[in-house]
Write a structure and sequence with these properties.
Elements: H1 5-9, E1 11-22, E2 25-27, E3 37-43, E4 48-55, H2 71-79, E5 81-91, E6 96-104, E7 113-122, E8 125-135, E9 138-148
Antiparallel strand pairs: 1-2, 1-3, 1-9, 3-4, 4-5, 5-6, 6-7, 7-8, 8-9
């Protein structure tokens, strides 16, 4: 018996790679080279999901307050993170997951359905292929590779 895509997705995942493509040309992702980024992706059995991508090195605000920071510090903080959460559905036939975005750092994601094709490279490695998205004014394809948490080094 084959395990469902939904069951295989359930749990938490850490980003291990992120690629963006213009045709055959490989570009840096929006936050910068994947080696300079970190990510966490969570799927619950109940159907909730959360995706967070960030630069590893993010300077703190000079005043240290949650609602502080200069306009430049706040702009850099926004530029260095992509996060969204909501619910998800799985199309078992096409092995696609659809993220129904309820909250997001990027306001244009809110209220949208983001489809990702699930490619399980093994039981603990997930590659999510993304249809072309607008980045830097261009429609570019991408993928993010994830490793199930707690399986690093196995």
């Amino acid at each position: 018996m084959t395990t469902s895509v939904r069951t295989r997705l359930s749990g938490s995942w850490r980003m291990t790679d992120w690629k963006v493509f213009r045709g055959e040309e490989e570009l840096d992702p929006p936050l910068g080279p994947a080696a300079d980024c970190a990510g966490l992706l969570i799927y619950t059995d109940e159907g909730t999901m959360s995706a967070n991508l960030t630069l590893l090195e993010r300077p703190p605000f000079a005043d240290g307050s949650l609602n502080g920071g200069t306009q430049q510090e706040r702009a850099e903080a926004y530029r260095s993170v992509i996060a969204y959460a909501g619910t998800y559905d799985v199309d078992e036939l096409t092995e696609a997951v659809v993220h129904h975005v309820e909250i997001a750092t990027f306001p244009d994601f809110v209220g949208t359905a983001l489809t990702r094709t699930c490619i399980f490279e093994d039981e603990n490695t997930l590659k999510l292929d993304t249809p072309p998205m607008k980045m830097g004014g261009e429609w570019l394809g991408s993928y993010i590779r994830w490793q199930r948490t707690g399986t690093e080094g196995r």
